[in-house]
Queue: 2 jobs
Job 1
Amino acid sequence: MKKPPLTEIVIIGSELTSGDVVDINGGWLAARLSTLGTRVEKITIVGDREWAIEDAIDKALKSINIDYIIVSGGLGSTSDDVTTKAAAKVTGTRLVISDELLDHIKSTMAARGKEMHPSQERQSLIPQRAKLLKNSIGTACGYILHHKGKVLIFLPGVPGEMRKMVDEVLIPELSEELAAKAPSSKFFHTFGLPETRIEELISEPLKGFEELDISYLPSSEGVTVKILSRGDESERIIEESVRMIREKLGDNIFNEDRRDMEETVGNLLNMKKKSVSVAESCTGGAIGKKLTNVPGSSSYFSLGVVTYSNEAKTKILGVQPSIIEEHGAVSSQVAAAMAQGIRRIGRTDYGLAVTGIAGPDGGSPEKPVGTVYIAISSEEGTRFKGLRFGGDRNDIRERTSQAALDILRRELIS
Amino acid sequence: MKKPPLTEIVIIGSELTSGDVVDINGGWLAARLSTLGTRVEKITIVGDREWAIEDAIDKALKSINIDYIIVSGGLGSTSDDVTTKAAAKVTGTRLVISDELLDHIKSTMAARGKEMHPSQERQSLIPQRAKLLKNSIGTACGYILHHKGKVLIFLPGVPGEMRKMVDEVLIPELSEELAAKAPSSKFFHTFGLPETRIEELISEPLKGFEELDISYLPSSEGVTVKILSRGDESERIIEESVRMIREKLGDNIFNEDRRDMEETVGNLLNMKKKSVSVAESCTGGAIGKKLTNVPGSSSYFSLGVVTYSNEAKTKILGVQPSIIEEHGAVSSQVAAAMAQGIRRIGRTDYGLAVTGIAGPDGGSPEKPVGTVYIAISSEEGTRFKGLRFGGDRNDIRERTSQAALDILRRELIS
């Protein structure tokens, strides 16, 4: 099996190390580079200080296995943009004014009806022998520099500019070099089985494939299984593994391409020409929000209600006060009555309802925080399910909405 | 000016270096540590490979200036959770079974009605002399280890568990040690003014303070202004700056402590003993979800409806079909009628309603994608506001829900 080229990503910005802003460039770059067939070994985030940037680049240069070093940030025109200076120092390269870059800055500013600011002249300095990467929507250009057998790639830090540069300029530049090395991979987005159970089901039958990487990515949205193979046989290995995994995990796989459960559910509703209304309590609108995340969801979703109080459950959904009194607002009986009520007033094929205790307060020994009842009503009757989730208020609400959509999905494919 | 203690954060997860998941723990930890007075020098993200984790911890241990090393991830029970093994190897510490931890795992599983899985026994191994940090909502515990004058802190990687552990256990543990070193800082969370306008208003009057750092952090939730000072005079400087900023930004500051608009609105509703119902269209439940993010929101929120179809607007909220026909479903008139309708059926002090075009389809030359109407109804009458937002479907929905809550907030303080 051929070793994939290894990459280290260095992200620069003091707003990131202070935690004022959460970095999104590292993850985005890692995903893009993975599809190109390189493997990202490390993402390092450092502040806008020259010695810190020098140290990060220097350490990456000294990592014996690393083939590509991608540096993002600190190429702008303000005084804290010192990446190029650090790059020149670490690689022992002279900085020279690039006429091409100077022209680019002038014409970009002119297109905005502005003159070049004197401070921007500094921006046209790049290391000698570096190959310019043009920025189609901003002044800060990137560049590629070869040094001691490694490829150093410098990119701006503004996410929109960085992404455009990677897709429009960098990938075409690198793809020839990398094309032969792209791995085969496949995702399975599942809901309903814990990570350990999935591992039990599929790790044994897949043991035969030595050149197969399997990873499990659990989140409140379910567990995603990713398989990846790089060898010459990779396509065959992936194909056989896919067959095996589909057989073992069955309906627990809700999608193989898109991670969003609401898209799968929306497609099923569209395909079967069915509609749904939703009555929520503890999720407070999260299920409706998820369903309407999808453009065009108005063709199958018309009404949602959040009945947080008992009065609203009774008045809007017609839940009998005696049911609430006897079983409590968090009960399978109330969930079922809510589902029937919302189906009736929404005049939809399905009525989906949840009631539960998201916490932190409101739990009891019999019904602790995390207790949730989900019910689905259709012309065939009403079914319900009791669940108990761990985590904090936010986790419980997220998991409940995902579980409710999954129950609707299973109803649609049954 | 005293040097703050320096911290390096090491985040572990192959799903992060592959770009399958974007890390949010590094940024969150950096923000929390900054408020404690330490300065984060570097955030390093590596995969779940033992040698990579060893290398990252080892490099941090060898960084002469670093005082604290925070490692998050890889403490679970599956075979790719190898952080503890790496930690033991790098620090030359023996692994021992912690009875305290074993009991914790058993009782956590028992509370979920489950037995401990044999693979979880491995999870009770921690380095000798390490001090346990309990996980109140999961099995994976953290620990603190002193080594060569540095403090190593190990935390789980599940964001909810990690955050709870930091706030409930780690900060009380560290705060005495760090208290004297914290810089003075202050946040102002604003809504209603663009970043450039805020800068215009406050940068000139604050120029006198040389030892003041000002940063502007825009997001779909508004613009946060952060000021920070470390010098001996820091308290006085912050105090005077706060006075100045409050005067200049006035009601546009919705909170100085918490970034969540829904908390501010919830506190105001509680304080004034007022209640609200919400009728949503394009936001699909996002406003209800935000309001019910807050524990205890049932005291002021009882009913939300998502009327996505015209029929639901008419049938549930009593919006006259003639109004929809004449002005369109996305109009100030329909927003006003929705607000009046939801206030009536929810029997609350306020009725809040939005209707708009979140896109990508449905726009027209007069009402392009991003056009939104928000109305608020109370016993004093109904007011409305037309807005136009940029961005994609998700941005538009986020900004609309934030703007709706801001309108309610301004009504509550007027």
Job 2
Amino acid sequence: MSTNNSPQYILGIDGGGSKTKTVIVSEGNIVLGTGISGPGNPLHGFEQSINSITESALLALKNAGLEHLKLSDLVAGVGLAGVNLPSLHKKMSEWENPFKKMFLASDLLVACLAAHDGKDGAVMISGTGSCGFSYVKGEEFMMGGHGFPQGDKASGAWFGLQACETVLLALDGVAPPTAMTSILLDVLGVSDEMGIVESTAGKKATHFGKMANLVFDCAEQGDATALKIIEEGIEYIMAMTTRLEQKNPERVAMLGGLTRRIVPFMTAEFRAKLTYPIHQPEIGSVIFARQQLAK
Amino acid sequence: MSTNNSPQYILGIDGGGSKTKTVIVSEGNIVLGTGISGPGNPLHGFEQSINSITESALLALKNAGLEHLKLSDLVAGVGLAGVNLPSLHKKMSEWENPFKKMFLASDLLVACLAAHDGKDGAVMISGTGSCGFSYVKGEEFMMGGHGFPQGDKASGAWFGLQACETVLLALDGVAPPTAMTSILLDVLGVSDEMGIVESTAGKKATHFGKMANLVFDCAEQGDATALKIIEEGIEYIMAMTTRLEQKNPERVAMLGGLTRRIVPFMTAEFRAKLTYPIHQPEIGSVIFARQQLAK
């Protein structure tokens, strides 16, 4: 297909664990409208995922005042968590989708394309989970992202788990006292060690992720235990970055909800290696669709 | 009640997560018969717990050739996990039990009484979980035992989790290669990083506990990563022991399924502080019952 055929409008869709966001853009990737619907991660439900994709796309058209357009007239780039698994990629590809054409990519690939405006690059992501990813000369490379509790080091869930662990040790008198103790008790709404144990037993990553911010709050006040946790997290991010650099990306961007908390604790030297992302992930979906159309 | 009233036979019952064991003893705590039934931990099901207690007691009578005795003629000491929680202690105490009299204690107290033949002492326990406990001048003190993954350091589940974490880091090239990698893949029956992630995602402590032995196997062959994990575990056990010693126990015993693996890695100096348990926990239940009868 030649670029002469490229349509005026493109839909860029990013389906994540908590919401699905669609933008409709004109040539030059100017955002004309935005639509947000429910969770779009097909790992957590295929039907919900395809409903969210369709709904957010229709909302984006409405938001842009382009209700006269039909989804069947439009090309969509869709970035979804989980579609790096072959079985899920196949299932999603076979969906009789409402679009003129749908180009499917992993959430990591569209985030990376967005971060570097379509150029080769790498991303370090630290949100509830963590992972590293590079896309260089058409080759995707992923590292980390091993899940909670055995992986996802330097993620929100990991920082929260470290907080929990060290506070419990401090309360038992086998680790130094830490300012995190009283704040953790407050955050969990409990009054003692047993309360922490009961309120965290069997909980998932998102629950521990809520305890991440207090580590940074306490470190900013000089708490030695909190600083040590952050140091270990940053060491991991540095080791990941070194591995990603071996793939020769043009840039490495740091993304995800914890970025603004972690970056201030890095050395100036290491911080200088990292860039901010250029675009939001849904623009990465647009870029991916344009790249595929141009092939 | 005076000791003149003490019955000839006593039942000692230990109800744990996987089985319930009852012994019937004569004066002098000579074991005449043993009965084993299903799980007895009331945290995992009250009905199952009371059924297992009754069943194992009847089996012990049969095993001793004392079927002519009735449970209603016999005093029972019962050690159960979870009854340190007041709500569960109340529920179990209110059970219309089949015994002449039932004396209820935590699994930790009966293990400690058993380890030290009823004398004041402390125990360090490392099985699937871990914790420390002392019983001195009638005062119970518990530490650790915070559950998986945020606590239970130096337990089987903790060693397995560390193995998993470090192997995943090694496979990503951000930690040194370790001999644990190939053995962990074998133990889990998978062939790569993704296989480890899929086979451990969302799994409970017992699943990770199965990966503990390989840490010790590899450390015995000199693997540096495995040795470092064991060192951290032993540091925790030493810190716990120091805290327990502040309670002035006469002895500190090390118990639990991992003991025989951990102890050889301790320094001779620290190892000299620890003793073997004198009796099995169910004898602790007998000792507890006799102490209560003598009050």
